[in-house]
Write a structure and sequence with these properties.
574 residues; mainly alpha; Serine Threonine Protein Phosphatase 5, Tetratricopeptide repeat; two-stranded antiparallel ribbon; 19 helices
């Protein structure tokens, strides 16, 4: 962040230091702003194991959170210990409180600083507050809105949960307030300056608006306040503004011994370059993940666990290189007998040849080249009896027949941590948000003004697919056909980046996607390989209560005691 935080700056005014003293001193004021950062839950690869993207290898570890989750045995009290990111309610509200304190005090601050610098600080605080509210509503639905520091005698019995749409309105207003300041260093800039990696920028504000309104128009949250037409307008502006100010999909072609394609290279390329090379990342909140250690293969020296194992369901979602889906469905309820798309060229006896380039960048499969600088060397062996064979009893072996490759720099290991991290916002998502909204409002082909250019939903998706090396969506798709293909595209492009967890909820298809997952068991018959799909035991974390996090039970109990109103989300009244 900008400079190290001083925790003493946020102590109650007990005589040691007052807020007036904080906001009359330049370094203390900046220090307090810095302390407003860092409250967003950091995205991590383990979230995939709570979706149909992955089955976690620790589902065999007694008492693991995956056993509890898959069994549907989570309660409002045990949720923090068994979810992907605990229960960030309190932490996010702490960040909001800090932003409120800063916004309120900077108005009358006597600190010696230019108006331009004060404007920049204020814009950052508004953007951060919007970000924290977005992270809250994605998880909990509508939440109470606090736009000022709470007085000592604040009457909590009068607090009410705002609706999802009301919070989105507040988020959009915060972003617009931030964006009302100049697009310079003395406002909210597009640029990332020296020693300011991770600072709020105009692109972050636009990304927040894009995601917030896309969620607000989605089936789970829509109440008519935000229509898909409104979402189209806002997502088009966000995308157009970013494109007009230098944001581009990462398209650096790597050497063959570095990465398979630009998509693969992007996820272990540092975004801390002041947008010199990485012009796609908007906000990089995640930490480097050490995939080799925590989602590795048993042949990795120093690995501890295999972690999220990609499912056969996810593998099936990767199209063939010709743009055709390999399977069009399944003839059995367990999804173990695929209906092959004859036009795709997919072969059950050779299932990993000729697939979407993103497949090779994201998943280690049987026969995959282990080290790109040794293309004729070691291959991954997930077949029974192979070095990385599938196992039902060992957390250091795949449970599904696949290992995670995305974010993994094959050169990483005990002496060289070079793996990547998840971006919280990146330009590809803005393309996809716009495509979703535009298709729902005007169909896949209608042109919409996106900054200085016109763009249709199909064209937006095709920009993303072109970077991946895939043919575009064909013209002439109906709205429903486009939506089905779009959802698959979003699943593939954003795989393992935490989007799937929230997407299936906002689309209200959790019961379709999370009842169970499948894997692939490969055996040898002489020199031939035999591929057999199999189904895991049913999960029980797909009921409507899992559409939202439960609110911390301590908070719920406090409000019940104060007002008699139960704020708990549906289904979590346990």
């Amino acid at each position: 962040m900008l400079v190290s935080c001083n925790e003493k700056l946020d102590l109650p005014t007990d005589g040691r230091i007052t807020m007036d003293q904080v906001f009359s001193d330049y370094n203390r004021t900046r220090g307090y702003l810095n302390s407003c950062y860092g409250f967003t839950p950091k995205p991590y690869m383990d979230r995939a194991s709570f979706t149909d993207e992955a089955q976690d290898a620790d589902d065999i570890t007694p008492g693991s959170r995956y056993i509890v989750w898959y069994g549907g045995n989570v309660t409002s009290l045990t949720y923090p210990g068994n979810s992907a990111d605990g229960s960030p309610w309190g932490k996010l509200y702490e960040g909001i409180r800090k932003c409120n304190v800063f916004i309120e005090n900077i108005k009358t601050a006597t600190v010696y600083a230019s108006e331009g610098e004060k404007n920049s600080w204020t814009a950052q605080a508004h953007t951060l507050r919007a970000l924290y509210y977005l992270q809250l509503i994605k998880r909990y639905g509508g939440v109470p809105i606090f736009d000022k520091p709470l007085a000592i005698d604040h009457d909590f019995s009068q607090d009410k949960r705002a609706t999802f749409a009301e919070v989105v309105t507040f988020i959009l207003a915060d972003c617009d307030k931030a964006l009302s300041y100049p697009a310079t260093r003395e406002g909210l800039s597009w640029d990332v300056f020296d020693n300011q990696y991770g600072i709020m920028t105009r692109a972050v504000a636009y990304a927040i608006k894009s995601q917030a309104v896309t969620y607000a128009a989605s089936p789970l949250w829509t109440d008519g306040t935000y229509t898909w037409q409104t979402a189209t307008t806002i997502t088009a502006e966000a995308l157009g503004q970013c494109l007009a100010n230098g944001y581009r999909l990462f398209d650096e072609k790597p050497a063959a011994n570095i990465a398979q394609n630009p998509y693969a290279l992007y996820f272990f390329t540092s975004s801390n370059d002041q947008r010199a090379t990485d012009k796609e990342t908007i906000y990089h909140a995640g930490d480097a993940m050490q995939v080799w250690r925590y989602a590795g293969m048993p042949t990795n020296p120093g690995m501890e666990r295999t972690g999220p194992c990609p499912t056969q369901d996810l593998v099936d979602s990767y199209e063939m290189a010709n743009g055709q889906a390999p399977v069009t469905g399944y003839s059995d309820a367990n999804r173990t007998t695929p209906i092959i798309n004859a036009a795709s060229g997919y072969k059950e006896t050779d299932p990993y040849t000729g697939r979407d380039p993103r497949f090779y960048a994201s998943i280690y499969y049987n026969g995959a080249v282990r080290n790109l600088d040794q293309p004729a060397g070691k291959k991954v062996e997930t077949f029974v009896g192979g070095a990385e064979e599938i196992s039902d009893i060992n957390r250091k072996h795949t449970r599904t027949g696949y290992y995670l490759r995305k974010f993994n720099n094959y050169r990483s290991g005990q002496n060289n941590d070079a793996d990547g991290a998840i971006r919280l916002f990146r330009l590809a998502e803005l393309y996809l948000n716009f495509a979703e909204a535009a298709n729902q409002s005007v169909g896949p082909e209608a042109a919409v003004n996106v900054g200085t250019q016109s763009m249709s939903a199909r064209q937006a998706v095709n920009v993303v697919r072109t970077r991946a090396g895939m043919p575009g969506f064909p013209a002439g798709l109906t709205k429903d056909a486009f939506d089905k293909k779009y959802r698959n595209e979003r699943r593939v492009e954003l795989a393992f980046e935490e989007h799937r967890f929230f997407d299936v909820r906002r689309w209200k298809i959790l019961a379709e996607t999370d009842r169970f997952v499948t894997g692939m068991r490969i055996t040898r018959n002489g020199t031939n390989l035999v591929y057999r799909r199999f189904k895991f035991t049913n999960r029980n974390a797909f009921s409507d209560k899992y559409l939202m996090y439960p609110i911390d039970q301590q908070e719920v109990d406090k409000i019940i005691g104060l007002s008699g109103v139960d704020w708990q989300n549906p289904g979590w009244l346990d």
